[in-house]
Amino acid sequence: MKLCRFHHNRVGIVDGDDVADITPLFDDVARPSWPYPAYDWLVYHFPEVRPRIPSFLDSARRFPIGDIRIDAPVANPGKIIGAPINYRDHINEANADRGINHGKTFTTLDQLGLFLKASTALLPSGGRVLIPFANRRTDHEVELVAVIGKGGRRISQEAALDHVLAYCIGLDMTVRGPEFAGFRKSADTFAVVGPWLTTADEVGDPNSLDLELQVNGERRQSSNTRYLIFNIQRLIAYASAMYTLCPGDLIFTGTPAGVGPVQPGDRISASIQRLGELRVEVDSL
Ligand code: MN
Prior knowledge:
The chain has eight helices and 20 strands. By secondary structure, the protein is α+β, with helices and mostly antiparallel strands. Strands 1, 2, 3, 4, 5, 6, 7, 8, 11, 12, 14 and 17 form a twelve-stranded mixed beta sheet that branches. A five-stranded mixed beta sheet has the order 9-20-19-15-16, with no helix packed on it. A three-stranded antiparallel beta sheet has the order 13-10-18, with no helix packed on it. The structure holds manganese (II) ion.
């Protein structure tokens, strides 16, 4: 099932070339009140609504997918977690290029740990990535994103995939430089996710998906998630040893080799097998 958000507050199922509006199925689901929970309301309640979706689709209002304005598929992720180095070929390119690593030698995720991106950095497919510092190198990083469905802490690798609701495409936009990752990767528009959530049952093995990124039609990154050093299960176990994971949390799983700078006017397209294609334009602030 492909779940999307559109027109700000509508919930849709992508069905062929249409989006079927299933917002009415959430009409009788209680809305949270202040203080708001640390999880995403839609993701948290999706399992209870899901059994009613197939029979609702026939009567749902439909929109051609080209006519809608798509939103980030998770409105309120409590956390956006990132893996800084998780493909061997990207570690090698980072260690070979002082422009990327500013003199630091990258080793493994075990030593570097994870980082957090601000939720204000979210940007949907179709949006504009804004470069915050005109004179600084800003890079694209295509990544598989796992969306937590069932929360938990100290999740075992064996149980990890039971905690994933869905997957989507992510762009972990990054200013290169010496500052902490949480600063360089958290600018507004730097957490691109979309175009929609593809539920885990439809994805199958998340550790064998082709991923690709093009800038202005030229291929820059091309790999497969089988080359992840920490696979999805291990990342979830690692992250949940530190953070309680909540429904709607996003885990950016790391980028393969081929990262490179983008400039205002560039068009970025990223695709992952079975998850669709995401497009953004790059602009200055
Ligand atoms: Mn990254």
